[in-house]
Amino acid sequence: MNQPTTNNQQPATIVVLISGNGSNLQAILEACASGELNAQVVAVISNKRDAFGLERARRVNVPAIVKPKLKAQERREYDAELADLVASYQPDWVVLAGWMRVLSAAFLDRFPQHVVNLHPALPGTFPGIHAIERAYEAYQAGEMTHTGVMVHLVPDEGVDDGPVLAQEIVPIKADDTLESLEARVHAIEHRVLAATLKTLLQKGER
Q1: What is the pLDDT of residues 111-150, one digit of tens each?
Q2: pTM as predicted
Q3: Looking at the annotation, which residues are catalytic?
Q4: Is the dihedral of CA 195, 88, 109, 156 positive or negative?
């Protein structure tokens, strides 16, 4: 890891891992460009070749790298190779922004307490994929009235259950469709992720 910085020093460096559209990556890029974050995205890495987030990175001249897992490749071998690739950019933080693989210790142990994940649900609810859809179904079944967003550290292989850095409730409205709920959750994700990264950088916890 690089040495701690303040807003008067060099920007923090961030590597973002994605698997899809990259709207949360876009929020990070825009926060960096506006000066909200004293940080620079130094690389975007995707395990999916068709992830649109790669194009978002290219548009602002950020290295956009595809690192797919080969079918015959062991999970830990892939994670170790991914860690080597990420480490080559000397990041202060690694941000999982729609990264759809559970990382093993072969990756996480290389960046202890410096891997941050965004998840569209509150702590302890709907870990894993399709969290917004599952929350909407639970609302329709009368089991809950709200969902939420959280940002957390990723210390181990647990799924969406690391130490929580920030969370925000998202009410589910009576006239919500799945699409309208998704849009509202994503908008809050963008804001909460940028604000959480700003807090981390201001604390100098690099």
Answers
A1: 999 999 999 999 999 999 999 999 999 999 999 999 999 9
A2: 0.91
A3: 119
A4: positive
* Alpha-helix residue ranges (DSSP H) falling in 35-168: 52-59, 75-87, 105-108, 131-140
Q: Report the C-alpha gap between 54 and 103 in whole angstroms.
A: 20
pLDDT at 5 over 90: no
Measuring CA to CA, how many Å separate 157 from each of 26, 30, 200?
26, 30, 22
CA distances from 66 to 27, 54, 176 (A): 21, 8, 36
Residue 54 corresponds to which tokens in the numbers above?
């790669």
Q: Give the CATH number of domain 12-203.
A: 3.40.50.170
How far, in whole angstroms, is CA 7 from its chain's centroid?
22
- Per-residue model confidence as pLDDT tens digits over 63-75: 999 999 998 999 9
Three-state DSSP class for residue 20: coil
Strand 39-46 to strand 115-119: parallel, antiparallel, or no bridges (unpaired)? unpaired
The answer for residues whose C-beta is within 8 angstroms of residue 197's C-beta and 6 or more apart is 14, 28, 31, 37, 39, 93, 95, 116
Nearest Cα to Cα of residue 17 among 50, 40, 51: 51
* β-strand partners of 15: 43, 94
Both tokens assigned to 125: 């609810």
Q: What's the pLDDT tens digit per position in 190-204?
A: 999 999 999 999 886
Alpha helices in the chain (DSSP H): 23-34, 52-59, 75-87, 105-108, 131-140, 178-203
